[in-house]
Amino acid sequence: MKVKISKDLQLPQIPGAVYKVVLETGNYQLTKSQQTGNDLLKCKFTIRSQGPTEVNTIGRKLPADNFTFTEDSIWKLDQMYAAATGEHLPEGEMELEDLINMVMTRVQGKELLARVELRVYKGSPRPSIAEYQQIQG
C-alpha cells in the first residue's frame, strides 16, 4: 500500500459557529504586543463541542485570543470573564498581576460559549473568537 503525504499537511479548517470552549490550566501567557509594546494576555481555548459540519472540532485548540488592558479594550476581557463566571470584573484600579491571577483562577477550567468567525490573517482564513457568551442553564 502506498501513502501519499503532501507538504501542505493541515487539519481541516474550523468552521465559523458558536462552540463550547474551555481555557485549560496553563494555556495562557502574558507578553508584550509587538506593535504597541502594551501588555498582552494570550489565551488558547480548547473546543468542547462539535461544529455544524462533519469536520471534527472537539479537542481542537483555537488560535490564541489576545486581551489588552487599555481603557478602550478591557471590555473584551470583561466579556470573557463574565461568560465564564457570571460576574463582571470589579470596578476600580488593580495591579496587572493581581487582575490576571484573579481572572485565571476563576476562568481556567470553566466552559463558556465562543462565537468563532473566519477572518483573513496574512492572506489566509483563520478562526477567531468574535464574542464570548455565558452558557445558559
Number of strands: 7
Strand fraction equals 25-35%
Helix content: 10-25%
Ends distance: 51 Å
Architecture overview:
There is one protein chain. The protein is α+β, with helices and mostly antiparallel strands. Helix content is 18%, strand content 31%. It has 2 helices and 7 strands; from the N terminus they run βββββααββ. The protein has a 4-stranded antiparallel β-sheet. Strands 2-3-5 form a 3-stranded antiparallel β-sheet. The longest helix is centred in the middle third of the chain and has 12 residues, at 74-85. The mean pLDDT is 92.
Blueprint of the fold:
Blueprint: E1 17-22, E2 28-32, E3 39-43, E4 46-47, E5 65-68, H1 74-85, H2 96-107, E6 111-121, E7 124-133
Antiparallel strand pairs: 1-4, 1-6, 2-3, 3-5, 6-7
Task: Give a summary of the structure in a few sentences.
The protein is of the alpha+beta class. The protein has helices spanning 74-85, 96-107; strands at residues 17-22, 28-32, 39-43, 46-47, 65-68, 111-121, 124-133.
Please tag this protein with its features.
137 residues; alpha+beta; four-stranded antiparallel β-sheet; three-stranded antiparallel β-sheet; 7 strands; 18% helix
